[in-house]
Amino acid sequence: MVSTILTSAGIPVIIERLPDFHSASLSVYLGAGSRDEEEQQAGIAHVLEHMLFKGTYRRTSREISEHIEAAGGEMNGYTTKEVTSYQICTLDETVDVAQDILADMILNPSLDNSCLITEKNVILQEINMLQNDPDRYIHVLFADALWGGHPMGRSEAGSSETVISITEGDVRNFFRQHYRPPNMAVVAVGNVDASQITNWVSDSFDHLSLNQSSHNRITPHYNAEFKLYPREGPQAYVGIGFPGSSSIDPDRFSQRLLASILGIGTSSRLFQEIREKEGLVYEVFASSSSYTDCGAMSIFFNTTVNNMEKVVHLISKEILRLKNEGLDNGELERAKRLLKGIYVRRLESSETRMIRLGEVFMSTGEAITSEETLCSIDNVTEEDVCNAASDVMSRDNLCMAVHASEESKKYINNLEGLDF
Q1: This model's pTM is above 0.90
Q2: Over 80: is that where the pLDDT of 319 sits?
Q3: How far is it, in rounded angstroms, from Cα 165 to Cα 44?
Q4: What are phi and psi of 330, to 5 degrees?
């Protein structure tokens, strides 16, 4: 059972009590991500996330690690385009230790300049690793192509130039502005006591002054263009896609099933046609992503430069076939079972359940249960999927990012005549 309780200061506390578990997972979510940064400070939300693990006024970084591991726990954090999360997963018998450390990190980070210099160097290595991994980097480039000129189009890590320029004062100002209610929620999953968790949240965070400034988030305009990002080598890494459903759009489940039918799993249309029949790629897959006010439906693959044009034409052919002929017999039920299977298997730990609840709440404002999500998947009809295909996969909205050599320009130019 999932419950949502508001503290006296209005901080949402989302609790899923699982009495048969011997673990407990706690997280503090802040509604501040890379889309909330100034352009010249791109990456600062991620820098601040790193800094909270570098010590507080009460504990050094090493002491934080030693105390939580001595309690049988692990800690982690992550930054996305819209949120930052800090989490500790531990034994149910040591929840109090996790609470104390998590509150200390959120309330009393030292944000020391010497640590900032060290962490900026660490993040520069992280950026270099990303840029030298084209399978991952194409996702960053596709977001730039689709939403370029808007914060949604930037990498969560920022760029080397912006990270180098971030100062201790910048980090402290970002912390003061964003790490307080109402941009805050707490999630607890596992064998936890609801009263204990709620009292801890209230005692720890209710005294924080409210953030008086609003997010001022602007919905991004999408770009329908083909964009080349040069790299050396014979391989082309390609992301193609369209603007899609937001996290509060009821059509988002139809879009997810559309992605599943096209390119999730080895029985999907694109995998069968392009890899199994033609042997042109090692992998090709579709993805559906949703944010608070926008989303994307995308397809990714890599192949040799001279095969890129043929692969894109085969993708176009499958999109057109789906639009004109609809779904094959049993295809929707297979896609539903696949999505539900992936989803349910991820609910086997308190940690993954916590992350799911936190991300859903921060993007929708509701603590949607796993049962409600499974029901929403089941309720999608063939007509819904076909309507999503027609509405989302419009040729006029097609965007493509290509990470390949200059030789690929001629193939990209040949694709301007695509029609589906």
Answers
A1: yes
A2: yes
A3: 10
A4: 80, -5
